[in-house]
Structure formats: structure tokens, C-alpha cells
Amino acid sequence: MVHLSRRTFVASAAVAAGAAQVVGTAAAAPARPAAPLEPADPAVAGPVPLHWIEGGAPAVLAGGTTWGVPWPRGALAAEQEFSLTADDGADVPVQTWPLGYWPDGTLKWSGHAISQSAPSAESYSLAPGTPAAPESEVSVREEGGRVMVDTGVITAEFRSGGRHVLTSITRGDTVIAKEGVLVGSSQNGIAGETTAAIRTRTFQSAVESVTVEQNGPVRAVVKVTGTHGRDGTAWLPFTLRFSLFAGSDAVRLVHTFIYDGDVHKEHLASLGVAFTVPMRGELHDRHVRLAGADRGVLGEAVRGITGLRRDPGDAARTAQVEGAATPDPSTWDQRVTSRLHWIPAWGEYSLRQLTAHGFEIRKRTAPGQSWIRVDGGTRAAGLGYVGGPGGGLAFGLRNFWQLHPTELQIAGAASDAATATVWMYSPHAGPMDLRPYHDGMGQDTYPEQLDALEITYEDYEPGFDTPVGVARTSELMFWALGGTPGAETFADLAEANATPPLLASPPAHNSAAGVFGSWSPVDRSTPQREVWEDRLAAIHSYHLNQVEQRSWYGFWDYGDVMHSYDDDRHQWRYDVGGYAWDNSELSTDLWLWYHYLRTGDAAAFRFAEAMSRHTGEVDQYHLGQWKGLGTRHGILHWGDSAKQVRISNANYRRIHYFLTADERTGDLLHELIDSDETFMTLDPIRKIRTEPYEPDRNALSLGQTTDWGSIAGAWLAEWERGGEEIARTKLINSVTSIAALPNGWVQGDVRYDLDTGTFAPQTEKSVSVGSLSSVFGLIEVMTEIVDLLDDDAVRAKWTEFCRLYNASKDEQKEATGASWGNLNLRQAYSRATAYASVQLEDPQLAERAWQELRTGHAGYPDDHDFGTQRIEGPAVLNPVDEGRLSTNASAQFGLAVIACLALVGDALD
Predict the structure, then answer these.
(1) What does the angle CA 820 – CA 821 – CA 822 come to, to the nearest 5 degrees?
(2) Do residues 327 and 305 make contact, with C-beta atoms less than 8 angstroms apart?
């Protein structure tokens, strides 16, 4: 495991002084301030209001919650403590840790956690100070290959080997759940495609390591890694993170697995997490709960005593319906008591969500007996329960219907030990089919592949359309309850499972803290501003609604959106090569995150969060020869042969990480700091080279715009987090050496040294620039890098690039020796013009930026219709709202307007 250290950045002065020369070895970090600094600006470093992003006060948390808060440069010491106060003045126990640092060593981002046992409130106030201590702190004990986590309510035991990923969960003296294991199955064929017998193979987890990542006092995190199966049969590497909170009976699990099978020989047929739940008491005192839609709850007993021909009595019936222990059967009507053994015991339940639009519940008495249909519905909340008055386990999966096909299963509830299984991929759905969708169609050579690209926009290459190395992360919840929950309580738990409550600082504070570059909170203070705000709201609302109307859900698909629209079919081009799934093309992820930053809107956050979970896992390789690379947009998320860092782009993950303190997203960021090494493995422009090329690690072809900007985001994130020093070294070396090139970011035929992170110097001016050069996060990340380094040469050369992209050909030629040609995406680059306006204090550039936006080259001009038209059957399968909008244009339009409002908004007025 890689542990990120807590060392701070090199001081700003040291960075500035050393930026003009190549940094050879990392300079020593300065000592941190011994005491908290005086706040630089009390408005942003003093008490910060926090609110639940969905509003109100949640009835219950998903065990607890974690979030991040930014702080202005120089305001707070790196190890600052914080106090949290509820809106009624109550002190709230809070755990704090540093997430990121400014170059001067002061705190940039703080991570926080509270427990579901904390005082509930609609809002809180976070301020520098001494935190309140929880009544029962989380304690972690490690001994003899075991890790014991005690929350004061439950104790969880982990062991460093074996097949159990969580050995037991105990509440008091009662074992609520034990023998937690990852389960699954595969098939060697797909029904209907082979006459041979289909062989099914089952597998379970094999634990390789257990690591304590946090140890309280409010939150403990235990990381478990391993594979599914052992020795020669091991596959599907996994990383699990279990979070437990002070005074809480919940365990949150973030589950990640990487696919590494053979799509032609072994089809993954099911994947889940199972626990054994000891069953106690009489069958009529054992209960099952399953959450449906809209707070609906199915509540039943294993052996029901309601609805019988004979009535046991009001007290018995009421107790069973409420989940309480029934009175002694001797007090019932004896016509029931004497015949209890004739009442079937329903020991097995299944809630199957095989599509996004419907679930069905079935039950049976025992294996080998018939399943009977119980009921069905639309979209289940994804929570189940099995147990009795003495205790039981609630178990669930977040985004249950969105990530279909899923299932909750209870088995053996009529025996001494039930099994509760969360199926992240249901065994009743049929195996995953991850094979290529076509046979190559004769595209055996680069010329043939490039010709096919001209018609389908798909960049195909044999052997590249593989999912080996992609991943999926799921979030699960478990509550070790002291008894069967009532319907209201269970519905509250189901809501927390489906939409885990999250605290957030407001847009005004985040903006004032100076994080994430050029953006500002929503401002409708003038008629002109309102026009642009309405347009931003319209494009965001449209794409958000398309997810629902087009049913962009499913295990591998949820979180992504489509790339382009087919007006003739009234359909997104889901089946047309590179026009199908978007896969982060032209920074869709960034646009969605900046929209949330400005608005603080809950729906915007959830939209962006789902995309980050998807694009960071499914659209990126995490093992194998293409580890660190992402896949270009296409019909299958991994199908296109363009494997590039522009898609695995760390700039698309940073915002999610710092807002949520999510450890898995932190893994993804760290994973990418060596992604420049991938250029030794795969040449991204291999198909269009005109001269022979062999990669040389000391003279590597690595573009200083699209390629470098994506990797620079990973180095920046690692530097911010105080991680490996090579990230800071390479970031400074690379950006200063680019700025030293005669034409900086448009200099042609550059060469990069992998060992030092330096671009080789040149003396003669040359020009090589493309429309896509800066629309994969480069503009946004450079805005931050320039401010952090405060290097005059870097600032000047980057400003020159921003000024010249949309400038006249004469201006370009005068500055760089050549015209930049007929460039595309001029509306998108209006934000570059706006940046240059601010740096050069040039109001004419500000006016030019707004004119570029209004002209709408390769985007949305001023007279564009942002409305929609309702299309209904029989023209379409389902009614849809159709707009004249594309994902690429929306993403770049959104980012451009957001930046221009922040940088040169005054020019509107």
C-alpha cells in the first residue's frame, strides 16, 4: 500500500526561485507553523456554514458522513483542529484530517467526519477550534493478524488472511453477522449460443492484506485487498474499504473490483457480498424487511400468524407486524398454538431489480421448492433485513436500480443461520457479455482503420476492444440492529442507503477560498447575467433529464451520457461508433462539477458524482499494459483503440475527491502520477505518423497540451495531498521547460524526458496546434498552476497562448512566426481570451471574449434555441424532450460561460 505522507508543499518562495531551472532533487519541506495562523480573511477562514446538500435534516445517516472544506491560502496551519456546532448550539463530535496544502504549507483542504450518533441538525458551523469528543470513541486494536474496531455499539473483526473479508459484527454479546465473504460465479458459455453443456464455476474472496487507514476518534477505515479465488484460479482483484463510526451500528463498504477475465471463455455471471446471520427465537419471531419504491416496505415474518383461518389474538398479530417479540404462545388462541407446525416457514426471499424500471419479489420455503411471486414495483431503494427481536442485519446497495441487474437475497431464515446477500450483479440476469460487438470487419491495417473512422467515427484496432483492466466501484451499507426495525425506521435507513446524506460548504465560501480556478457562484443581478445563467441552467437540465428519458442506467453504463444525437431517429447515436458513449470527451465531467460548484444544487452533485464513479473506473484501465490510460468515446466503454491519458484525466477526479474525501477517488488520483510512462508502451498518434518512431524515455513524444495537461492534473493533486515528491518535481520541471520553449504550448516536435519530467529545449520557433489541445482540462488546470507557482515566465507564456488562440492570423504570425491555421472550437476558447484579458488588464480582450461566446463558433451562438420539443409515439419508443444540444458543445459552452462570468463578467454590465 502507498501511504500519502502529511508533508507540506515547498514554500512559495522556494518554488518561485527554483522554477526557472530544472529541479533535480526535491527540496526539503518547511516546518509547519507551530500554532494556528491568524486567519487571512475571517469571512472565509472563520466559521463556515455547512448544510445537507439535499436540504433539511436527514432522519439517519449512512453510518456517518465525510466531506471536504477548502480554506484560503495562508489562513490556517496544516494541522489545524476544528470544532463543529449544530444550529441549536450543540457541540458535535467531528474528526478532522488534512486533505490538501497550499505551497506555503498552510491548509488548503480539510477532511471531516461525523457519525449518525451525532446531534441531528439542518445546518452546522465549522470553525477552527477544539473538537468535542464523542461519547464513545472508535477504538482500533491490531493483534495477531486481527483488526478489531469497536464503535461503542458494535465490534467488527477483520483477519489478514482467509476468505472472510469481515469476520464478524457483534453487538454487545450478540453476533449479528459473521463470515462476510465476496461471492460470485462465471459461465463458460452463453445460453442459446452453444449446444455444449454450460459449466458454472463459483468463487469466493481470498484476503491478501488488511490495513488500518483511519483509527478514530469518530471514524475508522479498514482497507482489505485480495482476489476472487486462489492460486491458479484467482481473478477479479478487489479493494474494499470498511468505514465505521463512533456510537454507530453501521458499517459502510466501498467495494471495487477489476475485471481481468477472458471475455470469450469465462463470462462473469454474478457478483456479490454475503454474510451469515445467526437466527434466534421462534420462526414467528423472525422477520424479513425489503424496501421498495417511495418509502414502501415489505414486512413479513418467516412464519406468519396473520391472515390465518384461526386468529391468535390482537396482541400476537400486532407484535408480529411491528417486528416485536410475540407474547408467549400459551396466551394465544390454542387453535393456532397447537397447529403452528402446519404453517409454512418462508425461509428464502429474493428482490430482483433486473431493469431500471421494475423489480419483483419472490419467496419460497426452502431450496428445491417452488418460488412464489410476492409483489413487484418500479425502483427499489435497495435495502433488506433479516433477523428478530434480539437483533438482525440490514444490508443494502446504493444506486440499486440505477446499477441493475441487482438483487437482495435472503436464504436459510428458517434455519439456525440465514445468509444475506447483496448481489451487485444478479445471478438471475444472465452472464455479462463483454465481448466485442463486431468482428473487426476487415480493419486489419492503419489505412483501413482510418478510413472506417471517416464513416463511423470509431477508432478500431484488433485486440484493443477489451475490458481487461477496467473496474467498477459500488457502495454498500450494513446495519447491525438490536431488533427488527419498524416500517418508518426501515424506510429511513433505506433512504440513507439510497442517497447517503452529505454535508457541504456553500458556493460563496468555496469560491472565496480560491480553489479550482476561474468560477464564481450563480449571479442573476443584471439582465445580461440572467440570460447566461438561464442558458447554463437549460443545458444542464436537459442532459440531466436525458439520463432518465433515455434510461442511461446499468452496471457498466450508469454515470455516463451519450456523445451525439441523431435527429432523424430522434435518438442518441448509441450504435454509431465514436458517437455513442461520451467517456469524458471534451471534459463533460469538469462541466458538471463546475456547475455544482456554482449552484450547490443536490441534483447537480449527484449527476457529477455518478459520472466520476463511472469514468474513473469503467473508462480507465487499472491493470495490464494500458494501466493509467482511458478509452475514447464509443459503443462499448472500452471498445475504441484510442487509449489515452486525456480520458484517464486526473482533472476530472480532483473535485470529487476534495469535496468528499473519498479514499477510492484518492487511489485513482495517485494511480495516475506515473501515467507518463504509458507513452513508452503505446504511441497515441501511431496511426498518423509519417516518420518512423521508436519511443525513447529520454526523448519521448508527449504532447505539451492534451497529453501533458491530463498528467499535470495528477501531479498537481499528488503535490496538493503531500504525496510522492516526484509529482511536484515533474510538474515544476515540465511546466517551466514548456514555458522556456520559443512558442511554449504551441511549439512543434517537442520531446520529453521521463526521468526528469523536462521538455528538451529548442531555439527555433515552430508551430503545432490543434483545436482539442486545451479542452481536456488544460485551461482549467493551468489557471491553478500559474497561481500556485507564481512564475513570471510561465504566466507570460501561458497568457500568450490564451491571447493568441482566437487572435488574427497576423497576430499569431507576429508572435510565433506562423499562422495557427483554421482552428475550431473558437467559442470554447473564449475562456482563454477572458483569462488573457485579466492577466494583461486588457478590456478589449474582455469584449472579444464575450463576442466569441455570442458568435458561437462550433458551439451555441447567441440566437441558439435552448428549448426542447416533446416527441411522442409512434415516432419514438418513449416520449422524450428533444433539444438542439450535443454533449461536447454543452460541456465546452458551459465551461466557457462559467469562466467568462468569473473572469470578465463585469464587461457584460
Answers:
(1) 130
(2) no
**Domain membership flag for residue 579:** no
Closest CA to 481 of 544, 587, 394: 394
- pLDDT category of residue 788 using cuts at 50, 70 and 90: very high
Mean per-residue pLDDT, 401-422: 98
Contact of 313 with 398, CB cutoff 8 Å: no
H or E element: which one contains 720? Answer: helix 706-720
Over the stretch 846-896, which tens digit does the pLDDT of each residue have?
A: 999 999 999 999 999 999 999 999 999 999 999 999 999 999 999 999 999
pLDDT of 5 strictly over 90: no
Query: Is the residue at 810 inside a domain?
Result: no
Confirm whether 748 is domain-assigned.
Answer: no
Cβ neighbours of 397 (radius 10 Å): 29
User: Does residue 143 fall inside a structural domain?
Assistant: yes
775 residue type, one letter: V
Helix axes 527-549, 588-599, angle to 10 degrees: 120
Residue among 786, 801, 802, 796 at smallest CA distance from 834:
802
Range of the domain at 423: 139-329+344-434+465-498
Q: For the residues of 400-469, what is the DSSP string, one character each? A: TTTT-SEEEEEE-TTSSEEEEEEEEE-TTS-----S-SS--TT--SHHHHHHHHHHH-----TT----TT
238 pairs with which residues across the strands?
226, 257
Q: Which amino acid is at 214?
A: Q
Q: What is the mean pLDDT of the chain?
A: 94
CA gap 578, 762 in Å, rounded = 37
Residue 181 sits in a domain whose CATH number is: 2.70.98
φ and ψ at residue 431, rounded to 5 degrees? -65, 155
Strand partners, 83: 127
The count of other CB atoms within 10 Å of the CB of residue 292 is 21
Burial of 55 (0-12, 13-18, 19+ CB in 10 A): exposed
Torsion sign over Cα 133, 137, 142, 145: negative
Q: What is the pTM of this model?
A: 0.95
Domain count, the chain: 1
